[in-house]
Amino acid sequence: MDIGFLGQYVVNGLMLGMMYSLVAVGFTLFFGVLDIIKFSHGDVLMVGAFAGLTTFFGLEAIGIESAWIQLVTIVVVSCVLTGILGSMIGKYLVLPLKSAPALNTLLITLMAGTVLRECIRLFFPDGSNPKPFPSLLPSESYSWGNFTLRLDSLMLLIFGTLVIVAISLLINKTKLGLAIRAVAQDGETAKIMGINFTLVVIVTFAIGSGVAAIAGIMNGLYYNEINFDMGLLLGVIGFSAAIVGGLGNIYGAILGGFLFAGLQTFGAVALPFASAYKDVFAFAVIIMIMAWRPTGLIAERTSERV
Amino acid sequence: MQKTFRILTFLVMVCLVGSLLTTAALAKEKVKVAFIGPLTGGVSANGIGGRNSAQLAVNLRNADPSAKYEYEMISLDDECKPNIGVQVATKAAADKHVIAAATHYCSAVAMGAVGTYNKFGLPVIVWGAVLPDVTYGNDYKEVHRVNGTMINQNQVAAKFMRDMGYKTWVIIHDTTDYGKGHNTYFTKELEKVGGKILGRFGVTADQQDFTAELTKVKQLNPDVVYFGGLTNIGVRIRLQMEKLGVDAQFQGTSGIKSDAFLNTLGPLSEGALSFQEGAPIDKLPGGKYFTEQYDKAGFERGHEAYGPFAFAAMNLILDTIEDVGPNRKKVRKSLNKVNGYESIVGEISFDDHGQNKVAAITKYVGQDGKWVVWEDSEYGNGKRKLKKL
């Protein structure tokens, strides 16, 4: 294969993997602190993207036209709103069911996701049709033979990497991160040590949802189009990525995200049969990996309990 | 006083008897025909438009003094649901007084109901459903159709594109029946006119990322990207083609001919092609006559896109009954042989499956944020150029 096209596939796969990873990080954070699966995560991401779009309309309406100011405002507003939404889901839907079977949490978040999705579809103006997302990033592109690198893709990749580094620093280097890790390891003991359990859980939900909003906006900026059911498949893929990487471990989630994107790209390009089966192929490989390593590629460190 | 009253009564009686006698002399045999379509539910606008148009055909016929029979149209609601469709089809078909019917807008309903017409021997003309299998999936002699199918659509599309000078294609289609059907029929038609298909990609109907497929398309470097599917992923594919620098003409099907496609893509929708069964009313041969009559009749709702087809179907039924008499078998035999029948939607000729061979298909091109009929567009008259020409 031509080296240029190979490079193109790699960049496409990296971009896709970055978005999957950001979604998977959320899943893994929630599982870490509460051992629950929050299935509304994909739809929270979609709300984030729509919040970004609405902010953009708002800024246009009051006459702010600098793309950079718009971009920063969109990211901040959307992250904050989505963070609030996520923490509310955590506080009012997930925490009250803490001692109920995990299945209940799974169901209630699944339903919450459907409510969010249908709300956008019904109440956002003309919500059932795809919406154009503004391209705020510079659209220059550089070509080397058959390889085209767009400046906006490169910027999104760098930004995504920064977000992941920031999350990792937050978890590993700050007091808040210490608290999150303590709660993740043993909630009861953490409480005894004077950590505000509820607050830590809610903050974790806010962080995870904020990251989802960033993934949503990246999605919008990259594809220039968002729609009300974009979160559905992203949610499932992000969840699979988190599982295959090892639930509860952020590096596992990131690895899982890139792995899934790689499999999809490989499935679409290199397999002799039609690309219609690329998802079948990717999910089948994931199933095999899960059979081989049930706890994921990088498993959560199990704490020793006395 | 009483005398005057008697004379008056007498005069009234004379008048009454006289008028009765004249009516008796003019009275015609009553013949029942049926209309079936979705009159309630999400697509009821199309159903009601069709019903009104069919009713218009019946009314005009009844107003015509040279008509041999007096027609009564019963209209039934299939709700665009297959189970209800079979019920009402049975109701119409089991009524021996109903000689023929114009039926169905929804393909799934038509698919369910055609067996019933065959069983009861009721000749029908489909006025709106587009799935090829409604006529081609069976050998029922009772079933005919005036509107085109995706087969006609792709026939026109393949020939048109080849005549424009395009040589190579890549097909992207969604993996629903709709997308797969387009893939099959377009391939078949393109082979007939000598186009070459370099690659074929099936995609799921909710896919977001097409960069892998499109990078491969870029590698194959076709003249045209043919897309068989609906607006939502059509938009994504067109956008991502641009991002990856895939420089090919974008050719869609009826599935992308929506305002959402144009609005979401903005300037990128420029030059996108779409093909659709039917035609804007002013492009139909009898369009002007039909709109005039429809407006005069004062219906509350519009006739919608398929109204003219319902009108043509009902008119064909009435003409056939006039010709061979109110007898189902005779009507069926006569309908099977329809060839070169002049109607408001153009010439109608049924093939051996009862499908109209010369169905109207219109070519549309995206121009300045609107779908413009090709012949009227700046692309059609050479002011603007499609890609790779």
Structure characteristics:
heterodimer; A: 306 residues; mainly alpha; ABC transporter involved in vitamin B12 uptake, BtuC; two-stranded antiparallel sheet; 11 helices; 4 strands; 4% strand; globular; B: 389 residues; alpha/beta; Rossmann fold; 2 domains; 5-stranded parallel β-sheet; 4-stranded parallel β-sheet; 13 helices; 14 strands; elongated
Question: What is the compact description of this entry?
Answer:
Chain A has 306 residues and is mainly α.
Please, could you describe this protein's structure?
The complex is a heterodimer of chains A (306) and B (389). Chain A is mostly helical and 306 residues long. Chain A has helices at 3-34, 41-61, 67-94, 102-123, 151-173, 175-185, 187-192, 197-223, 230-245, 250-269, 278-292, and strands at 131-132, 141-144, 147-150, 225-226. With 389 residues, chain B is an alpha/beta fold. A 5-stranded parallel beta sheet of chain B has the order 2-1-3-4-5. Chain B has a 4-stranded parallel beta sheet with strand order 7-6-8-9. Chain B has a 3-stranded antiparallel beta sheet with strand order 10-13-14. At the A-B interface, helix 1, strand 1, helix 9 and helix 10 of A face strand 7, helix 8, helix 9 and helix 10 of B.
Main β-sheet, spatial strand arrangement of chain A: 1-4
Number of helices of chain B: 13
* CATH classification class of chain A: Mainly Alpha
**Into how many domains do the coordinates of chain A divide?**
1
Large-scale geometry of chain B: elongated
Instruction: Give the assembly state of these chains.
Output: heterodimer
Distance between the termini of chain A: 57 Å
The tally of strands of chain A reads: 4
The tally of structural domains of chain B comes to 2
Q: Give the largest interface pair and sizes.
A: A-B, 38 and 31 residues
Portion in beta strands of chain A: under 5%
In CATH's first tier, which class of the largest domain in chain B applies? Answer: Alpha Beta
What is the element string of chain B, with H for helices and E for strands?
A: HEHEHEHEHEHEHEHEHEHEHHHEEEE
Query: What's the rounded overall pLDDT mean of chain B?
Result: 90
Radius of gyration of chain A over all CA atoms, rounded: 20 Å
Helical segment count of chain A: 11
What would the average pLDDT of chain A be, to the nearest integer?
A: 90
Q: Main β-sheet of chain B, in a few words?
A: 5 strands, parallel
CATH fold-level name of the largest domain in chain B: Rossmann fold
Shape assignment of chain A = globular
